[in-house]
């Protein structure tokens, strides 16, 4: 297989694995969003630590750009929490699309933090994606109560995701795997208090679910994405990453028979179009 084709395959497999996250979270509803958030990060840290030890990979020490790194890690924890709450209170399509409205916030934060020029094409992408989010936030899609909590959580998760993505481009001393490791380590103390809100009680199935969530559906796809992007052009890879939005909706349709509303479908299409234009 050609190097570039292997890269495409790795990114597609990673997107499919990420797509299972909402399904796993929904099945782990009895564990609770708070506990799932903490233990997903904990398992990811343990798995990565073992990966560094077993394969003798070099871990860049946590001593550079510390203020930005702590913000980076804290945001990571709250993004996971917001996403998991949204999954439990909304249909999977709405939760996923709200998180991946991050493309909007990436454009804005890139302008504010990286001082990147806002081109006419990027502005068009921004407008299209914003319209998509507005449709998702339509009163016909959202009720009061838990649904509103889910919407706010998902939207804040999308904003945080956009900011984290932009911040990741500002780190000069850390390779991607070291950055991912420290990001999760720093997120842990921010998520630790959450387990005291709903004291976890696990059975064997719950433990297996958490291990799968932290490894097969978190760290492994991250490693696949990083390796894939080393083999393909960044813009082509960025377009493939849009599959991260498609797979969860498809899996939810198959597993939970969740059929998105017309407004959700239209809003999602606009967000995907806006994201695609932004990558170009």
Describe the structure.
This protein is mostly helical and 280 residues long. The protein has one domain. 76% of the residues lie in helices and 0% in strands. Helix 3 crosses helix 10 and helix 6 crosses helix 8. The protein is globular, with a radius of gyration of 18 Å.
Structural descriptors:
single chain, 280 residues, mainly alpha, 13 helices, 0% strand, globular
- Multimeric organization: single chain
The general outline is globular
Radius of gyration: 18 Å
Number of strands: 0
DSSP helix count?
13
Let me know the average pLDDT. 86
**Order of secondary-structure elements:** HHHHHHHHHHHHH
Classify the helix fraction into a percent range.
over 70%
Quick synopsis:
The chain has 280 residues and is mostly helical.
Write the layout of secondary structure elements.
Layout lengths: L2 H17 L1 H7 L5 H23 L10 H24 L2 H8 L2 H12 L6 H17 L9 H23 L7 H16 L12 H26 L4 H7 L2 H14 L5 H18 L1
Helix pairs in contact: 1-10, 1-12, 2-10, 3-4, 3-9, 3-10, 4-5, 4-8, 4-9, 5-8, 5-12, 6-8, 7-13
